[in-house]
Design goal:
The complex is a heterodimer of chains A (787) and B (190). By secondary structure, chain A is of the alpha/beta class. Chain A contains 21 helices and 30 strands. With 190 residues, chain B is of the alpha+beta class. Chain B starts with 6 loop residues before the first helix and ends in a 5-residue tail after the last strand. The chains are: A alpha/beta (787), B alpha+beta (190). At the A-B interface, helix 11, helix 14, strand 12, strand 13 and strand 14 of A face strand 1, strand 2, helix 3, helix 4 and strand 4 of B. Chain B: It is found in: Cell envelope. Chain B: Pfam families: Molybdop_Fe4S4, TAT_signal.
Chain lengths: 787, 190
C-alpha cells in the first residue's frame, strides 16, 4: 500500500476493484465506513455483487479478465472530459516526455515485437534525449509524440460503447463509476484504489495495476491522504516475506538477484549494469554490499568482492509455475515447504500434486497435516506404494507461541510477543531454520569442495543454543556501523565499502539504538492525519504515506489545506507536516530535484508511460488465456508477451466445450488454502461446505436448484460441490451476446474438519507476462447436475 | 517486557469483582461464603500478551489471555489503532489455533512407499534432512557456468513463508541463498 488502513478514512472516493475487503479484510472496512460518514463514496467493481458491493454507493459488474478495458475507458473518460489534475500531470509524471519515433502501436502490438520469442525489443519505446541523456520534455503536453498525446491516442479507442461491449457492464453503471471516481481530480479531493488478487491473478495482472497507476496520476491522487494505490495483502506477513525476498528474482529490499549473464560476472559489473544514474536506487551498491556484509560477515572482504561470488546466479525464470513444471518433469530432487499448501492453493492443483511424487524428499514445516504434506496418502487419491518420496513433517509453533515482527499491508512492522510455549513438541520456524543451518554447516565443516565454500562462508552468529537469539537477528537486519559496532540510524548511513552491514536496507532504522526496537512501539496517540507515527514502525524510515511530496504543489504548498500531509517550511528550511517526508527533508522546492516527488525513480517523476515492462508501455486489453469471446480490440487474442507452456502440464479449454467463465474467491470464515481455518471447529462449522455460486438465469438454463450437487469441469479436471444460486451473479450481456460466469471459494481440500473439493483443480498453469502470477481469476468451465 | 495499557482490563476485572461483592453484601448474605462459591472469571489471573493476527494483511492487534499453560481467551486489542479492539470471524477464533486437536505436536516421517507416518525425534529429523540436502546439493551443485561463478543448485526448491515472522523470512532467504537455491518462491507469487 502507498497509504495505510487508518488513512482510508480520509478518502473522498474508494474505488474497490479486484478485491472484496468487506469479506476478506473485514476490519479494514471500518475505515471505509468512517470515510462514508464524512461524505466519502465507495465504488465497487466486481463480477459478483459482493458484501463490499452491498456497502457501496455505486456498483458495476464486469466480466472477469476485462479490467484493462474497464480502466482504459475510465482513462479515456478523464482525458476527454478534462477531469484531470493538469499541473500535477505536467510536473510530477512523465506525460511531458517525448517518445522516439520508433514507438508504434498497431492492432494490439507495440513496436519491437518478435513473434518467435514472444518478446519485445523495449529500446523501440525509448524517450528522446538531449546531449546529457535527459528526456526531452514538453510541459504544454501538446507535442504529438509527448507521452500525454500518445496516451490520449492509445486510450481514445476505449470509448464507452467499445468498453462495455467487452466488459458487459450496463452503460449507466459504467458512466456512474467513471463520473464518481473522476470527480476526485478536483483540488481538495482525493480518491483511493484498493485491489487484491482479482487484479493481479491475470495474464495481464501487471498492466491491470498499471492502469490503476495511470488513472491515479491523471487525477493527482498519489501522495495524498485518502489517495494512493493500495494492494490489500492477504497474509499476515506477505508484505514482509516479499520485502525479505522469498522470491526467485529478488534479494532483500527489492535488489534484483544477480543472474548468470556476463555483465553480472563481477560485483562491479552487476553494479554498473543495475545501478541507475539518478533516483534513490543510485545507492544500490550500498544496499547490496551491506547485505553481503550481513550474510557473509568477516568472510566478505574487499578482496573477494564482499562474497558476491557466493550468491547463486540463475539463468531462467524460476517462478512458481516453472518450479512445478520442473518438478513435474523430474528435474527437482528436494523441496522445503514452510507453511504452504500448493495442492489446494496452487494453480492446476491436480498437476501440482502429481509433480510432488517426483521428489526424492520433501520437508514440510506446518501447524497441521495438510493436503500437500499428505499428498501420498490413499485419502488423497494416491497409491502410496508407488510413491517413493520421503516426507519430513515438522510441527511449527503458531504466531503467538513465539516472538517476532510482521509487516502488514500498510508496511507497518508490528511486534508479536510470545504468549505461551509452543504446543507439544512444535517449534518456532526461527529455531527450525537455525538448526537446519547448524546441522548443514556441521556436515560441511571439514570440506573444501566447491559446494562447501559458500555454506562455510555464510555468517551464522545467532547464539549457541538451539533457539537463536531473535534480538541478534533483528539487529543484523537493521545493520551496524562495522567500524564502531553501533546500530545504524537508518539506510542513509549505508556505505558500499564494507564498513556497514544491513540484512535488508529498507528496514534499516527500525532498530536505531540499544533497547529501541521500534516495531515494539505502542503509543497509539494520533500524531495527525491518522498516521500514528509512534505506533509500530513503517518502512521506509517510518513514512506512512509514500510519495507525500506530491501532496504539495511544486512551490511546496499543499495543493489544499484539507489534503495537507507535508509542506516546505521556509523559516526552518525543511519539509514538515503530519508524516515523515518521503523526500530529502532539506531539499527546498527551488533546489535541483526539489519538485521531483517520486524519489525512487530516475528523474523523480512517475511513469504514466512505462517502457520497462515486458508487454508494452501502456496497458492494452487482451482476452484471458481461456476466453468465451474473441478480442474485439485487436487481432491479438491473449497477451502477446506471456509464456505458454504446451502439453499435459497446461491443458487449454475451448469455449465451445467450456462456455462459462469461472473465477475463484474467498469467504470471511476461511483463510487461503484453509489449513489454518478448516482445522478449527467454529470456523469449520460456520462455513463447512464447498459450493459453486451461479446466477438464477444460469441455474434455470441448466435445470439446477439451490443446494443441488453439481459438477464443474474445465480442461484440467472436474470437481463436485453444492450449487449456490444467488442474485449476486448476473449473466454478462456483451453486444447482445450472453456470457455466464460462476464463482467458487478456493479454500477447500480433503483434510481438516470442513472438507470439500479443491477449486484449483480447474485453474490453468499460465502466468502474467511480467510477474508470472497465475491466471486464477478467469478460466473456462462448464457445469452440470451430479445426478 | 512489553508495556501495554492494562487499565481497561484491570478496570473490567475489578469492576466485575466489585459488582459481585456489592450485590451480595446489599442482599445481606454472608459475603465470604457466597464469594467462595462464585465462579471465578476464566480470564481472572490470566496473563495478557499482545500479538498481531495471523490471518490477513490488515494486522489487527489481539490480546491473548493464557492461564495454566493454555489459551483461555483472545480478544481484539483496544489499543491498536488498526482495529481499536474489533476483530473479524477469523481473528475472534484465533484461540483455536492453539486448542485445536488437529495441531501437529510431534515430528513425523514418511518413508518411501510407506502408507503411514512414523514419529521421530527432532535430532533425527535435523540430521536426516541435512544429510538429504547435502547429498542432493553435492550431486547437483554447479560452481561455474561459461567461466563465471554461479554457485547454485537447481535441484532443491523452497516454497512458502508468508505466515512467517520477518526475522524468520530473513533467515530463510539467507539459508536458501547460502545453499545456492534458485527455486525460491512463496505465496506472493500465487
Amino acid at each position: 500500500m502507498t497509504n495505510h488502513w487508518s488513512d482510508l478514512q480520509n478518502t473522498d472516493c474508494a474505488l474497490i476493484m479486484g478485491g472484496n475487503p468487506a469479506e476478506n479484510h473485514p476490519i479494514s472496512f471500518r475505515w471505509l465506513t468512517k470515510a462514508k460518514e464524512k461524505g466519502g463514496k465507495i465504488v465497487s467493481v466486481d463480477p459478483r455483487f459482493t458484501r463490499t458491493s452491498s456497502k457501496a454507493d455505486v456498483y458495476a459488474s464486469l466480466r472477469s479478465g476485462t479490467d484493462i478495458a474497464f480502466m482504459g475507458g475510465m482513462i479515456n473518460y478523464a482525458l476527454e472530459n478534462n477531469l484531470i489534475h493538469r499541473e500535477y500531470v505536467a510536473e510530477y509524471t512523465n506525460a511531458s516526455f517525448i517518445v522516439k519515433k520508433d514507438f508504434e502501436f498497431n492492432d494490439g502490438l507495440f513496436s519491437g515485437y518478435d513473434e518467435a520469442t514472444r518478446k519485445y525489443d523495449k529500446t523501440k519505446w525509448a524517450f528522446e534525449t538531449d546531449e546529457e541523456g535527459n528526456p526531452k520534455k514538453d510541459k504544454t503536453l501538446t507535442h504529438p509524440r509527448s507521452v500525454f498525446q500518445l496516451m490520449r491516442k492509445h486510450f481514445s479507442r476505449y470509448d464507452v460503447d467499445s468498453v462495455i461491449a467487452v466488459t458487459g457492464t450496463p452503460k449507466e453503471d459504467y458512466l456512474k463509476v467513471c463520473e464518481t471516481f473522476c470527480s476526485t481530480s478536483k483540488i481538495g479531493k482525493s480518491g483511493t484504489i484498493m485491489y487484491a488478487m482479482g487484479t493481479t491473478q491475470h495474464t495481464v495482472g501487471t498492466q491491470n495495476v498499471r492502469a490503476f497507476g495511470i488513472i491515479q496520476l491523471l487525477l493527482g491522487n498519489i501522495g495524498l491522504p485518502g489517495g494512493g494505490i493500495n494492494a490489500m495483502r492477504g497474509e499476515s506477513n506477505v508484505q514482509g516475506s516479499t520485502d525479505f525476498a522469498l522470491l526467485y528474482h529478488l534479494l532483500p529490499g527489492y535488489v534484483g538477484t544477480p543472474t548468470a549473464i556476463p555483465e553480472h560476472a563481477t560485483l562491479e559489473g552487476y553494479n554498473t549494469k543495475e545501478t541507475p544514474s539518478g533516483g534513490y536506487w543510485s545507492n544500490k551498491p550500498k544496499f547490496l554490499v551491506s547485505m553481503l556484509k550481513a550474510w557473509y560477515g568477516p568472510n566478505a572482504t574487499k578482496a573477494n568482492e564482499f562474497g558476491y561470488q557466493y550468491l547463486p546466479k540463475g539463468n531462467k525464470n524460476y517462478s512458481h509455475i516453472n518450479l512445478f513444471n520442473a518438478m513435474y518433469k523430474g528435474e527437482l530432487e528436494g523441496a522445503f515447504l514452510f507453511g504452504t499448501n500448493p495442492v489446494v492453493g496452487g494453480p492446476n492443483a491436480g498437476k501440482e500434486k502429481e509433480a510432488l511424487s517426483n521428489l526424492k524428499w520433501m520437508v514440510a514445516v506446518d501447524l497441521w497435516e495438510t493436503e500437500t504434506s499428505a499428498f501420498w496418502q490413499e485419502e488423497a487419491g494416491s497409491d502410496p506404494s508407488k510413491i517413493d518420496t520421503e516426507v519430513f513433517l515438522l510441527p511449527a509453533a503458531s504466531s503467538y507461541e513465539k516472538e517476532g515482527s510482521v509487516s502488514n499491508s500498510s508496511r507497518w512492522m508490528q511486534y508479536r510477543w510470545k504468549a505461551i510455549d509452543p504446543k507439544g513438541e512444535s517449534l518456532a520456524d526461527l529455531e527450525i531454520i537455525h538448526m537446519l543451518v547448524k546441522n548443514l554447516k556441521g556436515l560441511y565443516k571439514n570440506e573444501s569442495s566447491a559446494a562447501a565454500k559458500p555454506i562455510n562462508a555464510l555468517y551464522w552468529n545467532f547464539g549457541e543454543g538451539h533457539h537463536p537469539d531473535i534480538d541478534l537477528v533483528a539487529r543484523e537486519i537493521n545493520g551496524y556501523d562495522l567500524s564502531t559496532g553501533k546500530l545504524l540510524k537508518g539506510f542513509g548511513d549505508l556505505k558500499d565499502d564494507g564498513t556497514t552491514s544491513s540484512g535488508n536496507w529498507i528496514y534499516s532504522g527500525f532498530y536505531p539504538e540499544e533497547g529501541k526496537n521500534r516495531s515494539k512501539n505502542r503509543d497509539n496517540k494520533d500524531t495527525g492525519g491518522g498516521n500514528f507515527l509512534n505506533w509500530a514502525y513503517a518502512w521506509p524510515a517510518n513514512r506512512r504515506i509514500l510519495y507525500n511530496r506530491a501532496s504539495a504543489d511544486p512551490s511546496g504548498k499543499p495543493w489544499s489545506d484539507k489534503k495537507a500531509v507535508i509542506w516546505w517550511d521556509e523559516s526552518q528550511k525543511k519539509w514538515t507536516g503530519n508524516d515523515i517526508p518521503d523526500f530529502k527533508p532539506t531539499v527546498a522546492p527551488a533546489d535541483p530535484g526539489g519538485t521531483n516527488p517520486f524519489i525512487m525513480i530516475n528523474g523523480g517523476v512517475a511513469g504514466v508511460y512505462a517502457p520497462t515492462l515486458n508487454d508494452g508501455p501502456f496497458p492494452e486489453h487482451y482476452e484471458p488465456f481461456e476466453s468465451p469471446v474473441k478480442n474485439s480490440f485487436s487481432s491479438q487474442e491473449i497477451n502477446p508477451a506471456v509464456v505458454i507452456i504446451e502439453g499435459e502440464f497446461n491443458l487449454k479449454g475451448d469455449s465451445k466445450k467450456y462456455p462459462i467463465v469461472g473465477t475463484t474467491y474467498r469467504v470471511s470464515e476461511h483463510w487461503q488454502s484453509g489449513s489454518m481455518t478448516r482445522n478449527q471447529e467454529w470456523l469449520s462449522e460456520l462455513a463447512g461446505h464447498m459450493y459453486i455460486e451461479m446466477s438464477e438465469e444460469l441455474a434455470k438454463e441448466k435445470g439446477i436448484k439451490n443446494k443441488d450437487k453439481i459438477i464443474v469441469s474445465s480442461a484440467r479436471g472436474d470437481i463436485k460441490a453444492y450449487a449456490m444460486v444467488t442474485k449476486r451473479f448476473k449473466p454478462h450481456m456483451m453486444n447482445g451476446k450472453k456470457v455466464h460466469q460462476v464463482g467458487m471459494p478456493w479454500h477447500f481440500g480433503y483434510k481438516g474438519y470442513a472438507t470439500g473439493d479443491t477449486a484449483n483443480r480447474l485453474t490453468p498453469h499460465i502466468g502474467d507476462a511480467n510477474t508470472t502470477i497465475p491466471e486464477y481469476k478467469a478460466f473456462l468451465c462448464d457445469i452440470r447436475r451430479a445426478d | 517486557m512489553v508495556e501495554i495499557n492494562l487499565n481497561r482490563r484491570q478496570f473490567l476485572k475489578l469492576s466485575g469483582a466489585t459488582a459481585a461483592t456489592l450485590a451480595v453484601v446489599e442482599l445481606g448474605f454472608n459475603e465470604k461464603e457466597v464469594h467462595a462459591q462464585t465462579k471465578e472469571l476464566k480470564i481472572a489471573k490470566a496473563t495478557v500478551t499482545p500479538t498481531i493476527c495471523a490471518f490477513c494483511g490488515v494486522g489487527c492487534g489481539i490480546l491473548v489471555h493464557t492461564k495454566d499453560n493454555t489459551v483461555v481467551y483472545t480478544e481484539g486489542d483496544p489499543d491498536s489503532p488498526v482495529n481499536e479492539g474489533t476483530l473479524c470471524s477469523k481473528g475472534t477464533t484465533i484461540r483455536q489455533v492453539f486448542t485445536s486437536e488437529k495441531r501437529l505436536t510431534k515430528p513425523l516421517y514418511r518413508a518411501p512407499g510407506s502408507k503411514k507416518w512414523e514419529e521421530k525425534s527432532w535430532d533425527w529429523m535435523y540430521e536426516t534432512i541435512a544429510k538429504r540436502t547435502k547429498e542432493t546439493r553435492d550431486k547437483t551443485f554447479i560452481e561455474k557456468e561459461n567461466g563465471m561463478f554461479v554457485n547454485k543448485t537447481e535441484a532443491i526448491a523452497s516454497l512458502g513463508g508468508a505466515a512467517l515472522d520477518n526475522e524468520e523470512t530473513y533467515l530463510l532467504a539467507k539459508m536458501m541463498r547460502g545453499l545456492g537455491v534458485v527455486y525460491l518462491e512463496h505465496q506472493a507469487r500465487i
